[in-house]
Amino acid sequence: MQQRAMERPRNLSGTDKPDPGIEVKVEFLRRPAAYAEAAGHVDVVETHMSWVFLTDRFAYKLKKPVRYEFLDFRELAARRRNCEAEIRLNRRLAPTVYLGVLPLTFGRSEGLRLDGSGEAVDWLVKMRRLPREEMLDRAIAEGEIPRARLRNVGLLLASFYRDAARVTMTAAAYCRRFAAGIAENRRHLQEPAYGLPTALVERVCDLQARFVASRSQVLGRRAEDCHIVEAHGDLRPEHICLEDPPEIIDCLEFNRDLRLLDPADELAFLALECERLGAAPLGPLVLGVYREVTGDSPAAELVAFYKSYRACVRAKIAAWHLRDREVREPAKWPAVARTYLDLARSYAARLD
Predict the structure, then answer these.
(1) Whole-prediction pTM value?
(2) Buried b / exposed e across 41-68, counting CB within 10 Å, b at 16+?
(3) Residues β-bridged to residue 123
């Protein structure tokens, strides 16, 4: 394919930088010849924020030059900073996976090159490619979950939380955080375009808000007792590799505030996701290992609140897919959002 003429958009810093554009970069990175390891084939995965290129041995992640409410990757320097943060933060729980940051360069004689000698026009995260059959979501789907390996995941997480630096936050600030989040979830989930049942959204959010107001001592004590840490932020089964030792990838690297969590909250989220995939017993197993290692035993009602709240957050994120101009599988996302809302209702019922 003939390479397009270079575009010269003005970046946010006010400097003219030659840039071939995201389409040309993606087309180049689709080619096996782009990689030093002489890849035989390249699988390509697109997400909201990235393109991921999978060779036989490695994964390369290219950030999209996009802007959302919670991030702004339009500037080249911002994408580089994010790649560097992704490496640093993910090495906490996946030290052998995240290998480094590589420039995508452009030179007049060599064109686009990965880690070439020309000017950097973008940056990619290089990772070791993990075996798909070792991921927890695959194990759940196949009904073959090695309990000993899952216990190792629990031990890894419990040690991570136990040794993490504590984040100072007042009880009042912690409760306000959830009150604001509940209000935001309510507002978004009631948007007519998503077609979700308003009465269900109202009922679930009312129960959550009532818990924050009436049980503020239970909730706020988590902050007062110094349980808040800089956690993973997106602890889902598809991010957990059951290798020995286990590796946990794809932390939420772009917003530190969203990573400031109570470990009980993060483990409740993992339990929610396991239950959604049909493996409800796995959440209590990991939480039990956490209790063993740390001595921290969060109340059952607190865990139920965290699950209900996180289910609403996931429902909102699912519904947001319908905002995309070229949304893939438009019929899928309202159904996913409704599944999360039904789970949120089941957990919220335990708060009534």
Answers:
(1) 0.91
(2) ebeeeeeeebbbbbbeebbbbbbbbeee
(3) 103
